[in-house]
Amino acid sequence: MIGEEDYDHLYKLVLVGDATVGKTHILSRYIKGTLPKAPTATIGVEFATRTVSLDTGCTVKAQIWDTAGQERYRAITSAHYRRAVGALLVYDITQPATFKSCQRWMDELRSNAEPDIVIMLVGNKVDLAEKSAGDRQVDFDTASDFASQQGLLFEEASAVTGANIKACFEKLLKEIYSTTQHRRDREPMDPTNSMHLQ
């Protein structure tokens, strides 16, 4: 088990999306492996951390911010996007309005977070569609096409069963690592930090 303080990189992630899409359940499932005992609407912002070993050989600490989906908290939550390098943009596959809102959430993220933020689109509540196919209101291919057009990662998941929750975070963290390493390789060397051999 990795100690909470042993990590190579710290990444700030945000969970965004409309109210009731399951952001808090996703966070609880990923951090604790369980659902909240008495789920309530998130007021403002809450966060949790998890340290993960990537298959790249490095260890990252994910600081994951769970934001309120209600409009009245928008000013509070958008301030917390600053310095975020990754986001899970969550919608409910049984509620098409939550998918339609994804464009607005994405625009807000791209306006307030880091310029090269990595965004994973997550269709939550697939367990409901598995129980009753008629409950699915957002087609997999429609969401996948939207993600491709917007340059997003994409997964469907279920916070209730835990299906794909770990995979969502791990894919996001790997892509952030890759993006930040690529950016570091592209940046010109700062002459004040370089060593000169005499």
UniProtKB/TrEMBL annotation:
One of its GO terms (cellular component) is membrane. InterPro entries: P-loop_NTPase, Rab_GTPases_membrane_traffic, Small_GTP-bd, Small_GTPase. It is a lipid-anchor. Its main location: membrane. The keyword Glycosyltransferase does not apply. It comes from the Eukaryota. Belongs to the small GTPase superfamily. Rab family. PANTHER family: DRAB11-RELATED (PTHR47979). This is YPTC6 protein. It comes from Symbiodinium pilosum (Dinoflagellate). The gene is YPTC6.
